[in-house]
Amino acid sequence: MKSIITFSLFFFAVFCVNAQDVMSLKNGAQMTVFVSEVTPTVIKFKKSTDGPTYSMNLVEIISITYSNGSTETFGAAPKVAITKNDDLKDDLLSPSKRYGGPRVGVTYLGEGTSRGKIADAFNRGDITPWISQFGWQFETRIFTLDDGACGLVEFVPMIGGLEQGLFLPSASGILGFRTRSGVELGVGPNLSLSGVGLVLAAGASFKIGKVTFPINVVFSPNITKTTAASQEYDPNTNTYITVPGVESKSGFRLSLVMGFNSRKS
Questions:
Q1: 131 — phi, psi (to 5°)?
Q2: Contact 87, 73 (CB under 8 A)
Q3: Which of 1, 4, 248, 261 would bridge with 212, disulfide CB 3.0–4.6 Å?
Q4: Which residue, 154, 161, 165, is CA-closest to 134?
Q5: How far apart are CA 215 and CA 155, in angstroms?
Q6: In CATH terms, is domain 2-73 a member of 2.60.40?
Q7: For residue range 4-39, what is the model confidence (pLDDT) as tens digits?
Q8: Phi, psi at residue 36, to the nearest 5°?
Q9: What distances in angstroms separate CA 164 from CA 118, 230, 250, one per listed residue?
């Protein structure tokens, strides 16, 4: 009976030894262990079945010979590139790319000739100074700096006043600059039923995933015009009199516009 127990213990010990894995290290040493997990960067193992779990960098190991006789050989662990400007890899910041997206907003028309021209065009005595805006932004980024800032050209056609039964088309061309943090400034011409004017734009863009959400304030300053003086005949005195020019103000426009951008090419 004692011989049977001794033989059984010996057999079990031999089995446990054979059931272990052998790790060959790059420093020439070998370790007999129980491998529990192999990840792309580390090996997790135990030195005994009931002992603690250890970790070792994969770059320190040449190979593992498992208890079933198979061998796994390792090269250098994959390196993860870490840069300070990971966001620059996002194609949303790539130069010479086109982007576009819908725009909605509201515009306040300051008192002046612009409101009068619009009212006359639609046979209205006056219009509500607050009008809605719907349109699309076409954006081309023409360069990107090392710090992520970029220069851009934008074309923004809009339709306003639909809630009042009006159809007020306008178009703006903007040359702008956007910092890596999303703050942006721009300036350019604007064409509308009121005539030709200048627009100044400022705002910020917020990126969620690969979609950018811009919010902009757009200001078109008041334009003061004075008609030229003229000569009018006065039949009472049989002479010509000088009529001074008349000064008019177009009225400023202030808009809040928002939307989102996606890549077009």
A1: -130, 150
A2: no
A3: 261
A4: 161
A5: 16
A6: no
A7: 444 444 444 444 444 589 989 888 889 899 998 888
A8: -105, -30
A9: 12, 39, 21
